[in-house]
Write a structure and sequence with these properties.
seven-stranded mixed sheet; alpha/beta; single chain; 2 domains
Length: about 350
């Protein structure tokens, strides 16, 4: 009977409505998911269209005698800009330096121009020394002899204030040559993060800022993690007499053949970028037009010279160049070829504290 809840009819009737309710629920969930995805896509596309239009406006005000016809929100450009994401950071990032088929896109070209490093020429004395060192046999003996002889060949009196770049090349070349010729080259042995920093990043950056250490104060911070019983080192450059101005952060991610996996590098970079994102938002709220933060990452003997800019609602991440901390004379020659780029990067930092 219809009132019997145990009858075949009652059981099938109940199963029918239960199944229908589940199907209705699943359909509502699918509709909400589609709507959420569409809204999210609209937000992302709007953000990228905003940055593209802003670039076009900037181009009209900064270009001198050059017609800049920038695409406005094309699907191709948006696809190019949508690149790597950081799981721990709920923000939109664009990566103009990613290699791909969008290298010739006018929007990306203009974005690179706006966030480019300032020009900086090396002194003639430094250029001559670099030419000698990078165009000779990759021999520690030959390179050391070149450095010693070149000092006696210079007619003018050496002055750190004017020959800062030559000093940088001489000191660092000698530093690495000493490591190469030591009984056990430490850069070819397992080194913990702190030791690796003392051998590579710290001497490089301290010598880079030696002649302007009355303007930039390079400091190193030791942090202890009780959970893992490990010690982490990181660097920060302050403006002298004003620690609120920090033109440079340095992220030391692992040592030499120790704790230097890809996951370690990614996690450390995300932590650093998460902090920089908050910092740039504060500077944007203080009416800084295009806030930018420069930072250097060390991982697996490689140095990444980078920056993060806040451009409207998007964060623009630049990787200007990378260089490997040398472990052989030939690698030292390749490192020295980046000297001008290193000083262009330094010029950007000095510009920030002026």
């Amino acid at each position: 009977t219809r009132g019997n809840k145990e009858s075949t009819f009652a059981i099938k009737y109940k199963e029918y409505w239960t199944k229908r309710e589940e199907e209705d629920l699943q359909e509502r969930i699918r509709k909400r998911q589609r709507l959420a995805a569409e809204n999210s896509n609209d937000i992302i596309c709007h953000s990228y269209e905003t940055i593209i239009k802003k670039i076009a406006v900037t181009a009209t005000t900064t270009a001198t005698g050059i017609e800049c016809e920038l695409v406005s929100g094309s699907e191709e450009t948006i696809s190019c800009l949508e690149n790597i994401s950081y799981d721990a950071i709920n923000e939109k990032f664009v990566f103009p330096d990613k290699k791909g088929n969008c290298d010739g896109d006018k929007t990306i070209i203009k974005l690179k121009e706006i966030t480019s490093l300032p020009s900086k020429e090396l002194t003639e004395i430094c250029k001559i020394l670099l030419t000698k060192l990078t165009n000779q046999p990759a021999s520690s003996l030959v390179m050391r002899k070149t450095i010693r002889n070149y000092g006696t060949e210079i007619a003018e009196q050496f002055d750190l204030a004017t020959n800062y770049d030559t000093n940088f090349v001489e000191i660092l070349s000698t530093h690495f040559l000493n490591l190469f010729e030591s009984p056990r080259n430490p850069l070819q042995q397992k080194q913990l993060e702190r030791n690796a920093a003392f051998l590579t990043t710290i001497p490089i950056l301290h010598n880079l800022f030696l002649d302007c250490n009355d303007r930039i104060n390079m400091q190193w911070i030791e942090k202890h993690a009780p959970a893992t019983e490990t010690t982490k080192w990181d660097g920060i450059a302050f403006k002298v007499n004003n620690k609120l101005v920090t033109p440079l952060f340095v992220e030391l991610s692992g040592g030499v053949e120790f704790n230097n996996g890809a996951k370690k590098a990614k996690d450390d970079e995300e932590k650093l970028l998460n902090y920089i994102v908050k910092l740039l938002k504060i500077r944007k709220a203080e009416n800084e037009e295009i806030p930018v933060q420069y930072y250097i990452r060390f991982h697996d003997l490689k140095l990444y010279f980078e920056s993060l800019s806040l451009f409207d609602e998007c964060f623009v991440k630049r990787t200007y160049f990378t260089t490997v901390c040398p472990t052989t004379p030939r690698a030292l020659q390749e490192f020295l070829k980046c000297t001008q780029l290193i000083y262009q990067y330094r010029e950007a930092l000095l510009y920030q504290i002026n």
